[in-house]
Design goal:
- By secondary structure, the chain is mostly helical.
- Helix content is about 85%, strand content about 0%.
- It contains 3 helices and no strands.
- The chain is rod-shaped.
- It starts with a helix and ends in a 9-residue tail after the last helix.
- About 0% of the residues are buried.
- The model has no long low-confidence stretch (mean pLDDT about 75).
C-alpha cells in the first residue's frame, strides 16, 4: 500500500511537471506569435509606405527645390546685370574713342606751320 501511494505521488508529480512545462512552452509560443504578428504588422506598414514619402519629407524636399530655384533665379539676374554693365562700359569706351577721333581730325601739328612761315618769307634782306 505504501508503494502504491509513493507510485501515485510520483505519477502525480510527473503529470504536474509535464503540465507546468507545457504551460511554459505555450506561454513562450504565444509570446513569439505575438512578436511575430507585431513584426508582420510593422513590415506590412513599411511595405505600404515603401517608396512613398511622408508629408514632412515632401515639405522638406519642396522647400529645398524652391530654395534652389530661387538661387538659380538670382544668379541669372546677376549675370544679366553684369552683361548690361559690360555692354554699357564698351559703349562708353567706344564713345570716348569717337570723341577723341573727332577732336584730332583735321588738327594740324605746329611743325608744318613753322616751316610754312619760313618758306613764305621770301628772299632774305641781303639779296636784291
Amino acid at each position: 500500500m505504501m508503494k502504491r501511494t509513493i507510485f501515485l505521488t510520483a505519477v502525480a508529480l510527473l503529470i504536474s511537471a509535464g503540465m507546468s512545462a507545457q504551460n511554459a512552452t505555450r506561454t513562450q509560443t504565444e509570446q513569439q506569435n505575438r512578436s511575430a504578428a507585431t513584426v508582420q504588422e510593422q513590415t506590412q506598414g513599411q511595405y505600404q509606405n515603401y517608396g512613398q514619402m511622408t508629408s514632412e519629407q515632401k515639405q522638406a524636399r519642396n522647400a529645398e527645390r524652391k530654395a534652389l530655384k530661387q538661387q538659380e533665379k538670382e544668379l541669372k539676374k546677376q549675370q544679366k546685370q553684369q552683361k548690361m554693365q559690360d555692354q554699357q562700359m564698351k559703349q562708353e569706351q567706344y564713345m570716348d574713342q569717337n570723341k577723341a577721333a573727332v577732336k584730332n581730325k583735321g588738327a594740324r601739328t605746329a611743325t608744318p606751320m613753322k616751316n610754312a612761315a619760313k618758306v613764305s618769307r621770301g628772299s632774305g634782306p641781303g639779296k636784291k
